[in-house]
Structures are given as C-alpha cells and as structure tokens.
Amino acid sequence: MKKTLVLFAHPYFEYSTANVELIKVYEGVENLEFKDLYEEFPDFHIPTFRERKRIRDYERLIFHFPLIWFGLPPLLKLWIDEVFDMTWTAQVNHPLQNKDALIIVTVGGKEEKYKAGGLYGSTISELLASLTLSLKVNHIEVNEVIEIYDSDDLEKEQLLEFSKKIQQSLEIK
pLDDT tens digits, the chain, 173 residues: what are they? Predict the structure, then answer.
C-alpha cells in the first residue's frame, strides 16, 4: 500500500458513533499514519513548517471528516490554508505533486436532501468543491469520494459495509 496520511477532523468526535466505528479501519495498517487534527491541534495552532515537511513523506492523503454546516470542519480548512502553499503550484516538482487522495465524508442528513431538487439544493460534490479544487491545483488526484449519508442513524452492519468499502479503496486486505 502507498505510504498514506489520514487527516481526520471531527470537532464532536465523542458524539459520532459512525466515525468511532469507521476509523477502526486504519488501525494497524502498515504504511499508514492516522492524525486526528482536533486531538493534535486543540488550540488551532498548526506548526506550518513541520506539517509541510511531514506531508512530503506521503504518497496518498485521506481526508476523513463530517460535513459541518455544508462544508469542511474549521480545523481541516485551517490546516489546508496553513499547510498548502500557493507558491508550490508554480513549481515543477513541489511537495504535493504526484500524490493521490481519498475523501471520506459523513453526512448526518439523508441523501435525497443533497440533490438539485432536494431540501438543500446542492450535492455533496458541489459542497466539497473548494477541497477538490485545492487538491486539483496542487496536482493531487482525487481517486474517490465516499459519501456516507444518514451517518447518525446507521446500524452496525451498515457501518461494517462502509468500513469494507474504505478498506477496498485503500487496497487493504
């Protein structure tokens, strides 16, 4: 498996039965480092240069988070703002180039609410456009977006199915 960094960002993790179960998929996986941004940076102070140095070591980035008010959790947004350097996009061989990414987003609402004619009038893809564009301009290929709807009400069996899907996406056997 590619050397992978999981950037997990959940401001209310202790209340998330879905994510408590889903992150178990990362335990004991070789070549994978799991970072809980809210645990690592509780004061929202991100050591930018250390993070920029760390990110160079990985071939794959996983962004795992809940949708918060139709967008990214604040600390994940801040991490991207602080760590991604716009001057890199003009460089021939910059630290983010030739990496790939996987986005795993849990959504408390039902899927039908996130359609053009649904209650919110926007899809998850549209709501994640700033993240996917940030990755694109940095030459990071998004391999897959796993959208997990109704996450607050999923049964154990359903969570296990999503865990298997994540494992398959990571090529974890």
Answer: 789 999 999 998 887 889 888 999 999 888 999 999 999 999 999 999 899 889 989 999 999 999 998 999 999 999 999 998 777 666 667 667 788 999 999 999 899 999 988 898 889 999 999 999 999 988 899 999 999 999 988 889 999 999 999 998 987 54
Query: pTM of the entire structure?
Result: 0.93
Question: Could you give the angle at which helices 48-55 and 74-83 cross, rounded to 10 degrees?
Answer: 80
Calculate Rg over the CA atoms of the chain: 16
Q: How far lies 118's CA from each of 52, 91, 121, 146, 153, in Å?
A: 39, 42, 5, 20, 20
Backbone angles phi, psi at 154, to 5 degrees: -75, 140
Within 8 A by CB and 6+ apart from 37, the residues are 7, 8, 9, 73, 75, 76, 79
